[in-house]
Every structure is written in C-alpha cells, then in structure tokens.
TrEMBL record, chains A, B, C, D:
Pfam families: GFO_IDH_MocA, GFO_IDH_MocA_C3
SUPFAM superfamilies xrefs: Glyceraldehyde-3-phosphate dehydrogenase-like, C-terminal domain, NAD(P)-binding Rossmann-fold domains
InterPro entries on file: Gfo/Idh/MocA-like_OxRdtase_N (IPR000683), Gfo/Idh/MocA_Oxidoreductases (IPR051450), GFO_IDH_MocA-like_dom (IPR055170), NAD(P)-bd_dom_sf (IPR036291)
Chain ranges of the Gfo/Idh/MocA-like oxidoreductase N-terminal domain: 2-121
Top-level taxon: Bacteria
Descriptive protein name: Gfo/Idh/MocA family oxidoreductase
GO MF assignments: nucleotide binding
Domain GFO/IDH/MocA-like oxidoreductase: 161-237
C-alpha cells in the first residue's frame, strides 16, 4: 500500500483526492493546504484523511511514500524538490515547472534518488487521445501536420499567458501522439488587457521532417472549440473533444501521387496528384476517467520501479517549448531553436 | 449601354458570362478564349455572343467599353495593361496580379487614363460579409483579433501556393471589413508533395494597434471549414460560410474592465477582469448572388465615373500581402514589413 | 426553518439531498431508505443527517415539516398519503402517481389539510424552459404546434413504458409553457423486447384550437436528441437541450396572410400566403440549477402558504395524459378524450 | 436510340431536360408545355429540341418512343394513359397519380401493352439511399423502426397537403429500403391557414412484424431537417441528407438479450437487457446525380425489356398510402388498412 499526500486543494486538488480515494494500492493520508477553509472542506468530506497546513509535517511522515502537487506553477519546483529530497515519489501538475532549468533539476534529482517523477498530462490518458495515438502509429502514414484549436471565453490568468494555460494541453498531447519531437518553435500573440499576459496566441512548431504543427489558443473567443486535425499520407484524423461520444473520426482521405515527377518536369505534376476519398469511421472510446488511470499507473510505477508515460522528461520537453514560445512571443514570432538533444539525453 | 467582353472562359468565366447576360446596363459582346472547345460551349449556350481566340480583335472593337479578365493570374498584368492602353475599363479576377509591382503599374495606368479598374473580390459583395462589416463598424468596439480558417481537401494548384489560392479570400474580406490596414506579415507553411508549392500555411498579420490577425489555409484537410472569428471589446462575431442561413452570429460576450489597475499594481487585476455573456443574434442576410451585385456596381462606376469598392488599390494591398507572405514563408516566418504608406498613398 | 426528510436515496435522491443541504430556510433532518448501503453512503457524506429505514420514525418526528419522496413511482401514492395524513407537506418525484385516480386523491388530501403538494417537474425550473414560456407568452402569437423529440440509447425500464419515463418531461414542460390544455390524446408505439414495455412511442395531443402537439420518445436511438420546435403565427422557437449555451433560439420566421381569401375563392390563396424570414436570436439563459430553485420555492410556499408552480393539479394533469396515452398505445392509437374539466376543477 | 419527349416544363421539367440531353441512348425530341414563355426558355437553351403546346403532336410522332411527364399531379393519369394508349413508354413524376384507382389503371394499361412505366422516385437513386438499403439488407438485423423527419419553411401547396408534397419522398424511400410493406396507416395533422390543406402531419405505418414506421412532415418549421433513423437488432443508421458528405452513419449500437426470460419471470429481465456500443462508420457514397442514373435505367429498361426499380407497382403502393393517410387525417388518426395483397398481386 502506497501512502500518498496531496499538496494543494484548490481547483484541481479535489479531483486528485477523489480519485486517490478510489485508487487501488494507494492510501490517501494527508491533504495539505495553506487555507483553513479548504482544509475544512476536505475534513467534512473525508474525515479519515489528515489535514495540515504544514508541508514539513507531511514530508516527515515515513508512511507517506508519494506526494501529488497541485499548487500554483511557481511553487512546483520548490515543493517537488523538497519532496524528492525527503525521498518521496512525486506526481506534479502540469506545467511541471516555471522554467526548463527548474524542470531539468527536478528530473536530475529524481533520477539520482531513483524516485518516480510523474507529470499530470491528464489528456494523454483519455480514451480519445490513446486511440488517436494508436491510429497515428498504425494507419496515418507519414504525419504531414498537426493543427489544434483550443479557444473559449476563459478565465484570464494573471501570472501566465494563455500559452501556459491552454497550449500546455496540446503540447503534452503532441508529445505523446507524435513520434517526432519539434526542433524549433515560434509564437505570436497579443494581450488585450493592459498589464495582463497574452490572451491569444498562435504557436508554430518546426520538425526535422516535413511535419508542421500549429496551435491556436484564445481566452477571448465567443464559442468554445477543442479541435485537432492530423493529416497524414494515408489517413486523416479529426479529434473534437466537445463531441459527446464520437470524439475521434478517422478519414480515409488524402492525395495519391503516381509516376516520377522528377523525371518529367513540373508540368507533369498536374496529372500525378490524385484525390482519394473513402469511408470515415469513429472508433469506440474507453470513457474511463483519465485521472484515475493515471494515478493507478503512478502507483504501479512506484511498486514496480517503472517509468510513467508522462515522466519528468516529457514534462521537461513541454516546459522547454512553453519557455521558448514565450520568448518568441515577446519578439513577434522569432524562431527559437529547442536544442532537443540535450533535453532528451 | 456598356459593351463588355469576357476574356477567359475556364472555371470562373462562365459565372461572369451568366451574370453579365443579366446585368442591366451591360451588353455582353464577346467571349475570348484560346481553346476552341470552350468557345464552342459559349456559342451553344449564348448564340448571340461573338466568340474569338484573338484578344486584339476584342480590343479593337469600339463597341467594347470594358473587359472582364478571368485568365490565369500570370497573364492578368499583360492582358489588363493591353486593355487599359486600348482605353477599356477593366474588371480583373483576384489576385489582381502576380506581383505588387505589376499591380501598382495597373493602378497607375488606370488612374492616368481615368478608367475604372475593379478587382473581383467576390466575397465582399455577399450579404454575409456586408453584414459583418456593418456589425464591425457599429457594434464590435475595438477589434481585438481576426481569425480565419479556410481548409478542405482541395485541388492542388501547381503554380501558386495555397496562400494565393485561399488566403486571398480572407485578405480581401479583411481589407473590406476592418478599418485598419496591416503593417507587417509573417507566414509559415509546408509543401508535402515534392516539387509543388505549399499546401498548408499560417499567416500572421500585424497592425499598429493591438489588433492581431491570423489565417489558416490548407488544401489537405479531411473536413471543410470556412470560419472566421472576430473578437471586439463590445461584441464578438462568428462568420461560418458553410451554415445555410445563419452565417453571421453576433455574440454579446466579452470581458469588462473596472477600476484603475495602474494605481493598484498587478494584484488588483484579478478582481477587475469580469466576464460578460448576453444574447446572441443571427441577422437576416441578403442572399443575392454577390457576382451580380459586383458587376452591376462595375457598370455603375463606368457610367457615373465612380470608384468600385474593390478598386485597384484594394487589389494592390492584397497582392502586396500575398507577396510578403510568400517571402516570409520561404524564411520560416520572418516578419516582412508592408511599407503600407507607399501603397495607399 | 422548515425541517425536511428525504425518502428514497436511489438515482435522484442524492440530488435532492445535495440541494436541500444548501437550500436557505430548509434543514435536512432525515434520509430514509430501505437499503443499508444507501444509508451508509448518506452517512459518510452527511454525518449530521439522521438515517433510518423506517418511514414511520420520520413521520412521527414533529420537527419534520415536509418530506421529499424519490422512490419508485408505484410507491408514491402510499408514501405521500401517509405523509399528508401525518400533516407533512410533500414534494414528490414525477410522475406523481401510477394512476390519475391516485393523483386525484393526493390532490384532494393535500387540499383538505391545507398542505403544500409539489411535484418535481424539474425542467420547468430551468432557465431554458422559463425563457421559452416567456417568449411564448409575449411574442410567438397563436401557437400552431409543439413538436418534441426525446430519444437516445437509454436504460430500459421494466415496469413502465418509455412514455412514463421520457414523455413525462415533455408533458410537464408543455403544461407549463402552453396556456391551452389538451382535450384528447393518442399514442402508437412498440416493444422490441419480449415481455418488456414499449421502448418507442409517438404521442399526439389534440386541443380545442388549431394547436397540435406531438412527442417522440425512444430508448433505442443511435443518437441523443432533445429538441422541441414551437411554431407560432409570429415567431418560432427551437429548444435544443443538448446545446451547451444557446438552448433557445427564437426565429422571426413564418407566413403572412393578406387579403380576404373567403371572398375570392380558392385560387386566390396562392397569392396571399407569403413567407417571412428575419433575424434569429438566442437569449441569454439563467444557468442556476433547476432543482435548487424548485426546492427553494417549495420552502417558500410552505412558509407563505403559497402554491408551487408545479402543484398537485399540474402533476395530475400530466399523469392523466400518461394514463390515457398508455390506453391508446394498447389500441393502435385510438383517440382518448381527457375530460379535462373534471381534472382541473 | 430512344426518342423522348418531356411534357411539362415547370419546376422539375428543366432537370429532366438537362439530364435527358446527356443520357446515352436517349434523344430528346420534344418539350411540350402550355405556356409560351416556358417553351421560349427551352428554345433559347436547346435550339435543336422541338417545342410545342400540343401533346397530341408529340404522341403522333413515331420517332417518340417514350414520354417523361412533369405536370401537376392531377393531370398525370390523363396524360400517362393517353401516352400508353399511343404506345409510348412512360416516366412519370411522383406521386404517380391522384388516387390509387388511377394508379392501378395506369399499371394495368402498361402491363397490357408491354410498355415500361417508371415513377420518378428520385431519392432511391441517390448514393445515400442505395447505401442505406445495402446496409439494411446486410447488417442491420431485424428492423425495429423507421423514423423520418422532413420539415422546413416550405412553399405551401394549395391543392395537396404536406403529405403528398413531402411524405411521398419518405414513402418511396421506405418502399425501396425495407423488405416489408406496411399493412395499415394512420395520420394526424393540421391546417393553420383557413381554406388550405394540412401544413403539418404525422404518419404512423403499421406492419405485420414488430417494425414501426413514423414520418413527420411540416411546411412551417423554423429550421430545415431531413433526418431518418433506422433502428435494428444489430446496427442502427442515421441518414441526414443535409450533411454535405457523411449522409449515412452506421452505428454498431443496440441492446443485447441474454438468457431465457420466459423461464425466470419478469424480475430477471433487468439483468438480461444489455447495451452495446461500438464503432460508427460513414461509408463513402456515390455522388452521381440521381436523376441521371434513373433516366439511364429507364432507357435501359425500354431497350432490354426490363423493369425499373421504381415501377408502376411501387408508384401505386406509395399512392395507396398517401390516399389512406389523407383519409385518416380527416378522422383524427383512425387506422386505415392497406389491403396490401391486392395492390402487389
């Protein structure tokens, strides 16, 4: 039985607590938060769980094997490092840290101590995204593009731009679904409220191949859109997260190329590009709550010395892109190289 | 009665001919095309119209006051200049020319000779776009962003990229709907077929104000999307051209800002950004065929010495952006300044 | 402070308990259920609430002023009568009873004792339905038809047909939204599982005026539909409950009738029927949880001796239609008169 | 080469003429209409086709082997009988005739003379409906229900009700797609304009099996809907004719029944009804114009002595249902038996 503490009981913490309370192999021991009223809410709902506003108390307790951190991003590094140094496995909310340097140090600390470091890239544990990865791996062919729109009239954040708030989802999904990693990023955007971070942004991601990726995030849209298009040489996918059941649609559509264009010069192309349209299908999806699956995997990794799907390296790769995108945003879309090799090695 | 000749009877020419045959004040005298079978098609349908493969014959005829040019883009400049020099008013397909230099010379030639030069920016004559401009001018407040997606599984062009084929529509609509003109552009994209122009592209348009514009065009998408979002300080608009009747939806949504954030520092913002959600309405739209309206205006301008809504300057502004976007596309999204002042002056 | 007990903690009971726990002026004293494990669930969640499997204990307690009954339909009559006879106000789930005779006796008992009898017609307390009634009363003109489709792949009930399970919603909405009451009903349907009640049904409702109403309910549909069309002489409404925010759309569409058709005979009609198409608007809706509003009103009625919007008479009218529809269903759609006068008087 | 004449050049006639002009094996010889201006329209468009207002002239011409009749329904019988008696094959618009008696006499006359009698049930020749029939025959299992909605703000007809105008489409599709024929029909509806036929109607169709069919037609709806649901024991279909490409969706959804409910009594059912949800797919559809396919088949049948898919018997079955539905409509939905055996034999 893995003893677990949840640190931070704000927006997401209650979901962690609710799922941990039902995770086989885990025992929820503590919830820690600085706000008395949040602790009171925990107590009335889960009288058996200890509540405290002192994270040191949690980390001192030898029955606690792991902590789940759901505090503001700016505190992730400090709390996670403290926990790792106390020998605790860590499950941390996304984005994993405020800077890639922080993220890298977290990865190194966990590796040095042989502890599990998992990042809560929730979406990659949904039935929809898992199915999308399966289709990409088995049927899409060469991936031509990845295009995502994630917009709505959303709560303005005051400390981070819309990129850190919304694009982080797309970046973590891309990191899981695509085999290739981006080598450079650029971003444009705008803040429409004086003194606030950017509320609309567009990211371009460049790869070594002909793959191109693009993400549109916006807190100020009149309609809610959650739609990703993936184009491949064999199949194309539409992932619409707002569809109640047919979230993933796979289209047998594309172009066909025949002959040897090099030999015959430019004119000949016109005859060689054909269009293919076949059936569409929407595979049945596993509707199990993603967070439950994810926490179960975290516990399994601790017990069996495994590596979570979204480990510290995945978290670091995402933070590195967020960081570079933020840098580009301040410079009207200048391309920022990602020095990917260092990050993954 | 204005005598008109149509030059080019390929994809769009038949629409020009059909509409000119019903345009009050215009008399369709000639259709000119190099292909015998196209001329035969004209003859069987419109036996009273003269057919010819010799553009000089058309331009020599003093009964011809105006020509409508619907040939490939690369020939627009040569044919339009020839017509203007022969004293004919010109209605030319979009994009107006292959380069801004050509477009500028066309504008100058028409101005020098006092001839009408109209560019066929068809969309701006639709009921939907005219209504959108009306709403932008009267109710949207400060325009924050203009975001357009125009994607489908479309015919690959072999001479021009998807920007010249599809983004030209969005640029002509923006030119008409927004009061501000862009001052710089950047574009990223990719060709997924060796030897072919880019089939997917993303454009960013920069303005002197906080307005930001973005266009996504794609010939290789599994679904057809034609959707524009306009966000303003007072209202927001969704323009979905695939909706059968409710193409324009106006949302009384947005954020409200209260207090004096400067005085109180960053912390105070959180309380000051509010969200506003009110009614949505979809105004009734005039469904008259845009091309008919447009050709009628062209004839009116000739008769009354007027200036068409989409005149040579509008066509030039659009071509200048296409040209700069193409330049940026080749350089991973480098920002290209538009030297707007020279263009408009 | 009104002391309340909830009887029945199955599917709907938890919603009653959660809302009552937050209803101003109400104090939740008891939850009563025959199943130990359900009572345990209450206790762990609401330790301050008394749990019991003995309804008599509840009814004996003088602190209990009112009971909310969320048990199977077949038990409503017995439990409600017991509660009324014990002097308790009653809030009962829909449908109110198994027969109109039972419903009528409940109404009479409550009236005799001066107790509040409310029926949980939840939908009529939603922002969408309240807005729909407002539009019908102020702008629709003569109501021509009311057409509702409520289908999905739903849980088969084993004791009642799809009419009692799904059409009850539409009947309660109609009862609230339309000023006229139906005078006759017919229904057709089918059971596709041997020994089970009808899983698909179509109801026709007849009125004294030209109003016609129709309801399609189906437990065996591949897609979920919740859509009501209301056609009127001045406006038309589409109510789509699956739309996340624009649930009510009001169309300024219809026909216009001019001249004097009587005088000129049949031929003249062709010129006199015109079509009108104007703007559509989707009013902003109050998104407050319906059940909370409803329970607050129940408490208010107890305190101020008022009558709930969905009182026993409303519940009785709905049950009478369900009963007649069931009778018609067994006889291939024979029309059953509703003897409305006796019911309402 | 089959010589063909078109009689009636109103709303649908131009489609017949345009398709016949391109039908291999057919030669369009005449267009006949009583209105001079309609004939002038034919002449300017098709100068080689003879025009006349005298149907006798057409029928006398031995080069004319077949006529296509696109006149008002009330004239179908007279014109078709005249043509059959003159030895011409007949292609007649739907509905085939005003009464089943007329239709029966047309069928008998064609049979007696060995002439082809085809009814223009256009929809059954679309790729969507042909695919739907294929799916019904190969994968749907037992058909449980057929439910169709065909509503919009449509042109009021003055001689026939909405049933004859719109439900005729659904009846002809059902006749083609389902193997079973209905044995009885009932209909309710209403006219909301004094002196006009019913503008809204609901039809129930009864079968010898557990199949149930229902059609909702309405000229006075704020939105356009063209949607058919087919539920079967193995698969379910949604046919949405307004979808641009995915008109047919096949759902692997339904219920599963296990065990022996008879043996165990009612209680056991609850455990035995299970729900099945699998993939959905939207098969690619042939987008060829239906009328062209249909006219080609008509010509083939003449040449090869074949029987068209929609022959006179199909037309008669549909008219018989329309007639019975009209009778039921006048009597608040009284069930009318269809005496199907006589019709088909």
């Amino acid at each position: 039985m893995i003893g677990v503490a949840v640190i931070g009981y704000g927006y997401w913490g209650p979901n962690l607590v609710r799922n941990l309370a039902e995770t086989q192999g885990a025992q929820l021991l503590y919830v820690c938060d600085l706000r008395k009223e949040r602790l009171a809410a925990v107590h009335s709902r889960y009288p058996a769980v200890q509540i405290t506003d002192d994270v040191e108390e949690v980390l001192r307790d030898p029955r606690v094997h792991a902590v789940a951190i759901a505090t503001p991003v700016s505190t992730h590094f400090r709390l996670a490092m403290k926990a790792l140094m106390a020998g605790k496995h860590v499950f941390v909310e996304k984005p994993m840290a405020s800077t890639s340097d922080e993220a890298r140090r977290m990865v190194e600390e966990a590796a040095r101590r042989g502890l599990v470091l998992a990042v809560d890239h929730t979406f990659i544990h949904t039935g929809a995204v898992r199915k999308m990865r399966e289709v990409v791996e088995t049927g899409v062919g060469d991936v031509y593009y990845y295009d995502s729109v994630r917009v709505n009239l959303g709560l303005f954040q005051h400390d981070v731009s819309v990129i850190w708030d919304l694009a982080v989802h797309d970046l973590s999904i891309m990191d899981y679904v695509l085999r290739e990693k981006p080598v450079a990023v650029s971003a444009t955007g705008m803040s429409h409220v004086a003194g606030e971070p950017e509320n609309i942004a567009y990211l371009n991601l460049f790869f070594d191949s002909k793959l191109i990726a693009h993400i549109h995030v916006n807190w100020l849209a009149p309609v809610k859109v959650r739609r990703t298009l993936i184009g491949g040489s064999s199949k194309m996918i539409v992932y619409d997260d707002l569809e109640p059941s047919e979230k993933i649609k796979v289209y047998d559509k594309g172009i066909t190329l025949n002959g040897n264009p090099q030999k015959n010069g430019e004119k000949i192309h016109q005859m060689l590009v054909g269009y293919r349209t076949g059936d569409m299908y929407a595979p049945q999806l596993d509707m199990t709550e993603a967070l439950g699956i994810e926490l179960r995997q975290f516990v399994d990794c601790i017990e069996q010395n495994g590596t979570p799907i979204a480990d510290g390296h995945a978290g670091l790769r995402v933070v590195r892109i967020l960081e570079a995108a933020t840098q580009s945003l301040a410079d009207r879309g200048r391309v920022i190289e990602l020095e990917q090799q260092r990050l993954i090695a």
